[in-house]
Amino acid sequence: MSERDYNGEPGCRIPAELKKSYRHYWDPTAYWQCGQEPEQAAKLKRCPANELYYDKAQRCVSWKDWQWTEPQEPPTKPRK
């Protein structure tokens, strides 16, 4: 996957990433969720209808409350 095609998926490899969610770069209705164990692949989750994932709040919010922010890379990326 080229850097230009990267979608924000975290590697979920270090303790700081576990049990956290991360923005999907190209789809504001989606986000990545790391599990409780290292090296488990992140799961792609979707916000409920009329909500978007807001990375500053670390949760889905009403589309009226959502603001675009510059994507921030997660601490690690998946091993491909």
UniProtKB/TrEMBL annotation:
InterPro entries assigned to the protein according to its UniProt record, in alphabetical order: Chitin-bd_dom_sf
Domain of life where this protein originates: Eukaryota
Molecular functions per Gene Ontology: chitin binding
Identification of the protein by name: Chitin-binding type-2 domain-containing protein
Source species of the chain: Drosophila pseudoobscura pseudoobscura (Fruit fly)
